[in-house]
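Quick one before lunch.
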Amino acid sequence: MKVAWAGSREAFQVSDRMAKLVANDPVFEKFSKPMLGRKELFKNTLRKAAYAWKLINDLRLTEEEAKWLRHYIDEPNYTDLHWEMFVPAIEGQGTKEQKKKWLPLAQTMQIIGTYAQTELGHGSNVQGLETTATFDRQTDEFVMHSPTLTSSKWWPGGMAKVATHAIVYARLIIDGLFHGVHGFIVQLRSLEDHSPLPGLTLGDIGMKFGHGTYNTMDNGVLRFDHVRIPRNQMLMRVSQVTKEGKYAQSDVPRQLLYGTMVSVRQTIVADASKALSRAVCIATRYSVVRRQFGSRNGGPETQVIDYKTQQSRLFPLLASAYAFRFVGEWLKSLYIDVKQRLEANDFSTLPETHACTAGLKALTTAATADGIEECRKLCGGHGYLISSGLPELFAFYVPACSYEGENVVMMLQVARFLVKTVSNLGYKQPVGTAAYLGRVTPLLQNNCAVQTAEDWLNPDAILEAFEARAARMVIGCGERLAMFENPEEGFAELSIDLVEASLAHCQLITVSVFIQKLNHEIPGNGVKRSLEVLCYVYALFLLHKHQGDFLATGYLTPKQASLANEQLRTLYSKVRPNAIAFVDSFNHMDHYLCSVLGRYDGNVYPKLYEAAWKDPLNDSDIVDGIQQYVQPILKQKLHYAKL
Ligand SMILES: CCCCCCCCCCC/C=C/C(=O)SCCNC(=O)CCNC(=O)[C@H](O)C(C)(C)COP(=O)(O)OP(=O)(O)OC[C@H]1O[C@@H](n2cnc3c(N)ncnc32)[C@H](O)[C@@H]1OP(=O)(O)O
Ligand SMILES: Cc1cc2nc3c(=O)[nH]c(=O)nc-3n(C[C@H](O)[C@H](O)[C@H](O)COP(=O)(O)OP(=O)(O)OC[C@H]3O[C@@H](n4cnc5c(N)ncnc54)[C@H](O)[C@@H]3O)c2cc1C
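Model of the L4XM7KOE complex:
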């Protein structure tokens, strides 16, 4: 199962080796993090990042190994933006010459980059950005300027204190004419003494949610006061500005300007299963240790994992972790394919890839953020302790619902793709993830054939149910949209239904990828049979949760929906004996989990007790402030004290 989770034996070995490297090196200790102040926390992260870079070089780690190393160090920092956004932006949007100049500098970290798109006033609406890049023909330069307060760049990770360079998105202006938003490579700091370059105001935007997690990152604010950069620092693969000031667009579609976001959204989907599996591992192990009620004749109480209600909250999350792992793997292969095509100037699959990355990013991050919080509740009161590992994990993870495309905004992008697909149905056969929309007649006419709970243990029955639900919701939206004279008005008016239809489409992708995985790629019958159970749990849990959709579209009868729920209950009993094996298969080491509740050895209570004594408040019996502020109250003799 460890190999199935990792993707291959080689992938398992690489991640396992890196997990152990990090866990066994005292530099990467992280239990004390929540006790540190912001400055110490930040410096500590800088120290770890520098040490990690040294390890990467000294041990000659491959790109894959370096990624795992950074992952297991488990502290957001400037290198995330450098490797995940700055480098890909140059790779995807730079010309050959630009790549030749900038990539070697970035890849050896002689420069450190960030991705400065969002502003104080605009994040989702990229076309609404206000920073200007005005071409000056006389000097062959662009003048970067922040004309308003709301145009201040706001949020870019690593920008406040570390990055030496940034890809800055700004409105291109030539001779007073606006030519859309483009990316520019801008140097922010001196490579000699790290001070901000003249004309730039740079700082940190302040503390964020949670304490020891995202505050290791220096998210920044940046303002330009007429800062000049050479013309050849505009990323010019999509459009070019000549030294005469002529604006030209190559045959590369404009959408490629958004290409870095496609790349990172793919990574975020791949990472969702890591965060969810971490929370599920903690909650499952603890649910086996924790006992409440049910003692008979003085025997032990019931392990809370044996309560059906606990199973009904925990096992769908366990199944979701596996579902997200497989859909992340699938999306990665889709992305690798589109990347190769884009390099060869084949843009045909970009719209579908954009819809998949946007939609799956929204689906997986929302479910993971909610899932981590559910795992905290599944651990009862102890889940609220920092030492459970869950509050910090939640604080770290939850911004994934907002960054890289706010989730609702992303689902609306999927909706645009689906509406377009449906409106082209007469003359363009949909392919890939939208192929099912080419079979609308049977999907709209045939109803579910399930008659017993057992009938739900059939991948075809499940697939057809999810296809029919998505097709009926999408087609329904299409029909209602057609009633509007102005399509944009219609889209806005129906946006709630459109987001729901997009979710149904994305859930269909996730379920069908899981089924596909079982049909083709699982080595070993035992592993395959166990994963089949999880696949049914995932699908039937979604069906139960969204039964309103399945019933309202008329595909299911209430009886069939209740049979699905009956089957789900039976499936929970099949998951139970393997629950610990399923979470052990994630191969999460104690160092990575950073959780007393999720310890591999199950030795929870003594370690919780021990951890409590490490709190600085327990350094002495009488702490600072008691004599000054508590003792006087105890000793006071005021009239109203009698009340
Ligand atoms: C948990 C650990 C994870 C670790 C991962 C790595 C570490 C990363 C750390 C996080 C750091 C965070 C960084 C950031 O957040 S960077 C900023 C990200 N910002 C956004 O995502 C902004 C979201 N907004 C947008 O993407 C666009 O503005 C939006 C698509 C919403 C609207 O754009 P526009 O107004 O131009 O819109 P249209 O809808 O008219 O679209 C025009 C056409 O372009 C197509 N399109 C849009 N986006 C893309 C894309 N990315 N790729 C390809 N095509 C795209 C769209 O479908 C339209 O096409 P048609 O004309 O054919 O319909
Ligand atoms: C931790 C973190 C790190 C970040 N790192 C970076 C970075 O490195 N570089 C960078 O450039 N940016 C970064 N960002 C910014 C991030 O990309 C934006 O915050 C994100 O894209 C959301 O945009 P917004 O803040 O403008 O949200 P808004 O768009 O203002 O969203 C507010 C609300 O409005 C709704 N809404 C907006 N538009 C629509 C619409 N058309 N229809 C319906 N509802 C709508 C949303 O659903 C949401 O509920 C980071 C953000 C965070 C939290």
